[in-house]
Amino acid sequence: MRRSLSVLALCLLSACAATPAAEVTMRFTSPSGSGTDLVLPEALAQPAVGRSSRGNAQMARDFLDLEFRMESGRALPVLTRFEGPITVEMTGSVPGSAPAELDRLIGRLRAEAGLDLRRTSGGNASVTIEFVPRAAMRRAVPTAACFVVPNVTSFAEYRSARNAGRTDWALLTRRDHATIFVPADTNPQEVRDCLHEELAQALGPLNDLYHLPDSVFNDDNFHTVLTGFDMLMLRVHYAPELASGMNEAEVAARLPAILARLNPAGEGKATTPATIAPRVWVQAVEGAFGVTGGAGQRVGAAERMLSIAMAQGWNDGRLALSWYALGRAQVISDPEAAVRAFSEARRIWRGIGGAAIHVAHVDMQLAAIALAAGQPDQAMAFADRAIPVVRDAQNAALLATLMLIKAEALEAMGRVAEAKALRLDTAPLARYGFGSDRQVRARTAEIASLAARGARG
User: Who's near 328: CB < 8 A, 6+ residues apart?
Assistant: First the structure.
């Protein structure tokens, strides 16, 4: 599940949204748009996928925490998976961008996770992906952007069976069918992000862990497409040594040999066990990034995040996220303190393998602050540092935001022709990432207002 940490939102002008936990959902991350027929821009066609640098002992602990717990805190008694070939079908009002996105994802899952997976049509698929109007989804599950449910074949069936035991993941002993519900009327990037996370969870782990730096199975929402770590977890999930119905002890006994075979580079590496974040810290995250409450409440929640992280002795991405939340909460009331908090978050994330995209998000925030402070040269430096990382991560919305910031910086420096050309290059990315022309214009105006503020001194 992904929480609605709107890590992309410009911290100077907007708040982030967070919502209470559900079990296997992706939370709202952006308003709905209408550019659903756009395909992935060529500049983002190939993700840069690396392998995780953590040792296999830590990988084993992560795998068990992903497989035998849900984010709500409920335990899962046994491993469940599909046994045999897996088929996927799309139904409902399928957006024009979705078939190509799904084909690209299936190709990666086959090549990188070794899954026997293919698209089908005509019913009886292992996994159904139904595209439903967002308004209907909100009436059924108000907080979810997209979600996956076992043992139903349609949205209508889900609505009638949602309180029945057969839709409870904890009662399964194997997976026979699951349905993913995705809004039909959102932007292409959200369609893609939903396909990546929800198909991965329909097939494999159901939990999300805040301490994973290099995974979509993390509620911080920084990664938007499946990573090398995620593919390894799926490959382990379907290892022939495992089977549906095994309990945690049985799986744990087999993991060392499985990981030694699938990830030999992880053998013998020192491990730093990471415990699951306590619920009180998660609640502070929700408060720090929430839409309810005022700025003072968000500052207080971010300070609680930081206090808990320090008390827990964390020095991982959760500590960095706590500093990041504090920077976002302080940016209007105390910009200098916000810069210090962002810089501390950046320092921590720079030392963590797989967190380059997190550093890029910090650089976007720092670029926005510099632009609003009348420092276009600094804004452009931050943007230039982040752009290659974001392009590799396939995040069109963040890439468009950085390019628009850079364009405003160029214009402020008198390089008007370069600014104009860059805005033209940004257009397809912005449409893919934000959706409708209205939303693209709103984001462009938001960034232009930062530059205007900087020009006024």
Answer: 11, 16, 288, 289, 298, 302, 338, 365
**Tokens 């709202």 — which residue?**
28
The two structure tokens encoding residue 233: 């977890």
pLDDT at residue 1 in the model:
43
d(CA 85, CA 41): 31
**Range 5-10 average pLDDT:** 55
Burial of 122 (0-12, 13-18, 19+ CB in 10 A): exposed
Helices (H), 131-178: 134-140, 155-161
This prediction has a pTM of: 0.90
Q: Rounded to 5 degrees, what are φ and ψ at 318? A: -70, -35
Taking the C-alpha atoms of residue 76 and residue 205, their distance in angstroms, rounded to an integer, is 11
Residue 17: pLDDT band by 50, 70, 90 thresholds? very low
Task: Give exposure, 52-78, as e/b (b: 16+ Cβ within 10 Å).
Answer: bebbbbbbbbbbbbbbbbbbeeeebeb
Label residue 124 left, alpha or beta by phi (over 0 means left) and psi (-120 to 50 means alpha).
left
pLDDT band with cut points at 50, 70 and 90 for residue 290: confident
